Amino acid sequence: MKELEKQLQEKQIKPTAMRLVVLDYLLKQTSAVSLTDMEVSLKKTDRVTLYRTVKTFEEHGLVHRVEDGTGVTKFALCQPDCTANGHHDLHIHFYCTNCKETHCLPRTHIPEIMLPDGYDRQEINLLVKGLCAACKK
Amino acid sequence: MKELEKQLQEKQIKPTAMRLVVLDYLLKQTSAVSLTDMEVSLKKTDRVTLYRTVKTFEEHGLVHRVEDGTGVTKFALCQPDCTANGHHDLHIHFYCTNCKETHCLPRTHIPEIMLPDGYDRQEINLLVKGLCAACKK
DNA sequence: GCAACGCATGCAATCGTAGTGCATTATTTC
DNA sequence: GAAATAATGCACTACGATTGCATGCGTTGC
Ligand SMILES: [Mn+2]
Ligand SMILES: [Mn+2]
Ligand SMILES: [Zn+2]
Ligand SMILES: [Zn+2]
After folding, report:
1. CB-CB contact of B88 with B82 (8 Å)
2. What nucleotides of chain C have any atom within 7 angstroms of a protein Cβ?
3. If pLDDT is split at 50, 70 and 90, which confidence band does A109 have?
4. Among B97, B95, B124, which Cα is nearest to B31's?
5. Which of A63, A84, A115, B50 has the fewest CB atoms within 10 Å, counting from its CB?
6. Chain centroid offset of residue B127 CA
7. Nearest nucleotide by C1' position to the A39 CA atom
8. For residue B68, is pLDDT > 80?
9. Which residues span the membrane (chains A, B) (predicted)?
10. Does B69 reach chain A within 8 Å, measured CB to CB?
């Protein structure tokens, strides 16, 4: 349990009981989760508290939000090099149209994009939809 | 006006009064629009009718939806080669963090993505956020 | 022309998620 | 331990998406 506390403190997040539960839950996930997912899995937790917990996590560079085109925001743990000053784990997200799961693909790099003249890039979101490895078989 | 009717019929969409109004409006836009945008601009139109109109357009390959991370779905006219069997105008979308407009960049091609083994790509959504040419100055 | 049919439209209502306000509770500081 | 500060829980609001249903309207067969 001390391990979880340390992970929070490294990101300057005070380790409350609720936050430890949420972090523990996030560490066990293999795909990005919505607030509703969390609410269902972690019984007895208030949705708004979860909302503010992941918001805090996001602001401190512990989780990033994933936009997978379903309309509901999902969250996943960041790679280690994210901080409160910004998220640096630029990677692809994959949405499986069969199992509806959304995966981070941190190994898959985003290629350089040539924008038209005058456009100034600040951020890139690359979402690939299709069948995940488990569903393809 | 016959021109508009023809455009609908080419996509197998029956040209009703409402649909002509919506298509005319979409042709005049320089950025993707939300249902609320349409509702405000086209007075006296019912939101649900607009919803179903663009849905019909989308199903027939006349418009495509644009997910720009704002949480609200936007729509824009397709390139000519989209049909009811699928949208084929794979291109980048650009969201300007200053003016909040979302542009299709149909000239900017999406580079090839190498996915991990087992993943099967069906669709790609590439969203770039930053400053548009007008706002950068 | 007219009746019957099917699709399009408009209105009301529901649903689901995001977000805010505020009182209560826990934690830190002195 | 008391005061100050931060986190939590509950109530409620906001808003876009979506459905159900009644009505309107154009097309077709007669
Ligand atoms: Mn990710
Ligand atoms: Mn587009
Ligand atoms: Zn899958
Ligand atoms: Zn702009």
Report:
1. yes
2. 7-13, 16-21, 26-28
3. confident
4. B95
5. A84
6. 13
7. C17
8. yes
9. none
10. yes
**Alpha-carbon gap: B35 to the closest alpha carbon of chain A (Å):** 15
**Domain extent at residue B118:** 2-136
Q: Could you give the strand order of the β-sheet that contains A74-77, starting from the edge strand earlier in sequence?
A: A33-34, A74-77, A63-66
Output the pTM of the full model: 0.91
Instruction: Decide if A133 contacts B116 (C-beta within 8 A).
Output: yes
User: What angle is formed at CA B131 by the lines to CA A82 and CA B58, rounded to 5 degrees?
Assistant: 95
What's the domain count of chain A? 1
Q: How confident is the model at residue B1 (pLDDT cuts 50, 70, 90)?
A: low
Query: pLDDT grade, residue A25 (50/70/90)?
Result: very high
Three-state SS for A120? Answer: strand
Q: Are B12 and B57 in contact (CB under 8 A)?
A: no
Of A123, A133, A24, nearest in space to A77 by CA = A24
Q: Which of A73, A114, A125 sits opposite B108 (nearest CB)?
A: A114
Q: Locate B126 and state its tokens.
A: 């590439």
Min Cα distance B15 → chain A (Å) is 30
Chain A residues 105-134 with a CB less than 8 Å from chain B: 105, 107-108, 111-134
> Residue B130: which of A108, A120, A129 has the nearest Cβ?
A120
Residue B48 belongs to a domain with what CATH number? 1.10.10.10
